[in-house]
Amino acid sequence: MASNYRFSFGPWNISEGADPFGPPVRPTIEFGKKLAAYKRLGFEGVQLHDDDAVPNVDQKSAAELQREAAALKSLLEGEGLVPEFVAPRLWEDPRGVDGGYTSNDPQARQWAIDRTKRAIDIAAALGTKLMVLWLAREGTYIRESKNAIQAYGWQLEAVNALLAHHPEIQLAIEPKPNEPMDQAYVPTIGHALALAYRSADPARVGGLIETAHARLAGLDPSDEMAFALAAGKLWSVHLNDQNGLKFDQDKSFGAADLRGAYNQVRILELADYAGTRRFVGLDVKTMRTQKADVAEKHLANSKAIFLRLVEKVRSFPRQVEQQCIAARDYEALELAVLEHLMGK
């Protein structure tokens, strides 16, 4: 059933509406009130950065990290929620200006590894084994500024150090080709899984695919998902939408490319992704023009579109599909898909 899917989003997906060209347009909502919205909107999992879970991570002792993470775990349980993952937020710290794991500064590289180890400790205290690595500034604005061969080696060293830190942690690499860096070192899921297979424990390194990130690489998100699924390494998805090769828009799922959204749902259905009990994450931003009292509709709408597309995938006439494939009449198959999506 469609209800077998588990959904998550992050507290950053309920935002004040600031962008690079303008200030906030909606009031800040405190963290606890955001958590209260999860169940009301039909979500179970909470995506967390390390400093969402424990503010001022670098200034806290190990005991303080454990105590504050335990308090958050209790709060989540009280709301009937579970943490999907924890991700180290390295890209906002001045020490990560030239990248964390691939910085030219060895002290910055060590800080990035140490900070991620603390994030792993937070994840363990919260009760999740999943750590997401969005390698936001692991790349260059100018290629001559780094030795890319060496940088890939540093990334592998970092992954191995994290695997050694905790015997059960799973690392899901979230690829993106650019933004904030001009060129990222792990732009696609193929790069991410190549890194995974070179690691000290490939079974504990997989991937997270975001719709918009795949589109920014000029790739089809459903094919990127299929690549990871074929390897048994799709450990989460961030569904949204993207209108062209520009900045990461995080539009509501299906808003720009409904057929592309259909095919993402189709590939998840073909793999019985719901049966894995891993989450369908929605990484969507509300429009800046949206009023504060209706600034959660992007989440509710995206979930509704996903579930409606599950119904569309499951109700597509398989005999028509098989007949078209057998006859190699793909024009007929295309029309059948389009008519099905239009409700004929």
What does this structure look like?
- This protein has a single domain (2-316), classed as Divalent-metal-dependent TIM barrel enzymes (TIM Barrel), CATH 3.20.20.
- It contains 13 helices and ten strands.
- The chain is of the alpha/beta class and 344 residues long.
- The radius of gyration is 20 Å and the shape is globular.
- It has helices spanning 31-41, 50-53, 62-78, 106-126, 148-165, 189-198, 211-216, 221-230, 258-270, 273-276, 297-315, 318-327, 330-341; strands at residues 6-9, 45-49, 82-87, 130-134, 139-140, 170-174, 183-184, 205-210, 234-239, 279-282.
- The model has no long low-confidence stretch (mean pLDDT 97).
- The protein has an eight-stranded parallel beta sheet with strand order 3-2-1-10-9-8-6-4. It has a two-stranded antiparallel ribbon with strand order 5-7.
A few lines on this structure:
The chain contains 13 helices and ten strands. By secondary structure, the protein is of the alpha/beta class.
Q: What is the secondary structure topology, with strand pairs?
A:
Elements: E1 6-9, H1 31-41, E2 45-49, H2 50-53, H3 62-78, E3 82-87, H4 106-126, E4 130-134, E5 139-140, H5 148-165, E6 170-174, E7 183-184, H6 189-198, E8 205-210, H7 211-216, H8 221-230, E9 234-239, H9 258-270, H10 273-276, E10 279-282, H11 297-315, H12 318-327, H13 330-341
Parallel strand pairs: 1-2, 1-10, 2-3, 4-6, 6-8, 8-9, 9-10
Antiparallel strand pairs: 5-7
Helix pairs in contact: 3-4, 4-5, 8-9, 9-11, 12-13
